[in-house]
Amino acid sequence: MDRAATAEKIAALIAPFNKKEVAVTDATTFAGDLEFDSLTVMDFVAAIEDEFDIIISMNQQAEIETYGQLVDAVVKLQG
Amino acid sequence: MTDLFSKFDPLIQMREDLLSTGVTDPFGLVMEKVISPTVAICNGRETILLGTYNYMGMTFDADVIAAGKQAFDLYGSGTTGSRVLNGTYSPHRDVEDALKEFYGMDHAMVFSTGYQANLGIISTIAGKGDYIVLDIDSHASIWDGCKMGDAEVVPFKHNDIEAMEKRLRRIPEGAGKLVILEGVYSMLGDIAPLKEMIAVAKKYDAMVLVDEAHSMGFIGPNGRGVAEEQGCLDDVDFIIGTFSKSVGTVGGFCVSNHPKFEIMRLVCRPYVFTASLPPSVVATAATSVRKLMHAADKRAHLWENSRTLHKGLRDAGFQLGTQEPQSAIISVIMPDLERGAAMWEALLHEGLYVNLARPPATPAGMTLLRCSLCALHSAEQVQTIIGMFERAGQKAGIL
Other C-beta atoms within 10 Å of B223: how many? Predict the structure, then answer.
């Protein structure tokens, strides 16, 4: 799946967690802009993992701060 | 200069806000005198202890105390050394033998605390390129063991077998896998479906570590824990346990049938680079562990206490962590920290001590009043406790 298609799927998965309907760009941060707490992160990561059939370990999650970084990571993890 | 402590400002503020309401500091309790495993003097008041993890009431057992005193006289107050240098005395070997007898396993390794047992075993056996799959509600010592090692860490939703299986299935072929579970989860007092979960782990060729800290001594026909109760102990590769709950002193351990297990004594840094437990501590632990093997009557009474308290609190109208009592922990869910602290204080004024638990220790941001029962609580004490909860609940506006 190319970056655009991956980004589109991830955008759809973020929607239910984006309670304040923040406009999401590549620079949007999960902790700061979207105000994800640790419980939200767990549910959101599980949704992404199930959608793409991948694992995003906590070690990898620690490197992901923005939406753009997440899309890049998912593209890479799909191989 | 940047004050390195500024990161704690939100917590300092939260604490100040709580204490400014005039409530007693829930994290500053001092026991002035301990009368028995179930009663102490706190703030000059006789207080029933319902938050000690002293499940089997071994802390004042005459044989346990005598073993400790004898070891003091024979071996002195401490070893001043690592287990692999000058810190292994015959009582250290003896307590490891007692654990092997208790669990019917080939190897036992004793650490200075239960925290260090998890820290040491997990960080050592799961290395770079390996995967740890663990329950999201795992104890802090498990998380810290993961953080200290180099493995990839993959959590799954609490007790969710399907979520665990999905993650195991996605791990790259050939990678080492360690699944970490707990028998009893200490915040809500619920147990894990170990039989099903371990079967799935084995299907994916994962090794399995189970922390049985909160089940040792009273769950399972021989008190070996939830895995024994569910008939899957033989499929567990590593059991982690502690001396600071049912055993009644301090220390941690790992028991295993792995043929190469003894190498851990040389490669596990939290085992090597710290002083061993004082001989008096391991002597009390050995005596206590052996007595726990023959404690069927106490186990039965503890379960009766757990059922009575659970029913009494549920009938009184409290919201509890589990629908049915699953362990010796009964968790009472509070609406928020302020009312939880008020309820905790009202109970203390009634003469009852329970644990106030708050995030990040608790799941889903809950505030809990956690009660842990003891086999030495009398049936009468349990009725007294229920009455105290009812009065405090009305006073604090929970009921």
Answer: 26
Task: Single out the residue of B398, B382, B331, B396 nearest to residue B48, CA to CA.
Answer: B382
Is ipTM > 0.95 here? no
B170 → closest Cβ in A38, A39, A54: A54
CA distance to partner chain A, nearest, from residue B18 (Å) = 23
Class level of CATH domain A3-77? mainly alpha
The single-letter code of the amino acid at B280 is S
Q: Does B167 touch chain A (CB under 8 A)?
A: yes
Q: Which of B152, B156, B166 minimises the CB distance to A59?
A: B152
User: Token match 């009431």: residue?
Assistant: B57
Q: Which residues contact B106 (CB under 8 A, 6 or more apart)?
A: B100, B256, B257, B259, B261
CB proximity A76 to B under 8 Å: no
Query: Which residue type is seen at B130?
Result: D
Q: Catalogue all structural domains in chain B, each as residue range(s) with its CATH number.
A: 14-56+296-395 (3.90.1150.10), 62-292 (3.40.640.10)
The model's pLDDT over B10-55, given as tens digits with 9 standing for 90+, comes to 999 999 998 998 888 888 899 999 999 999 999 899 999 999 999 9
Give the rounded percent of residues in chain B with a pLDDT score beyond 90. 94
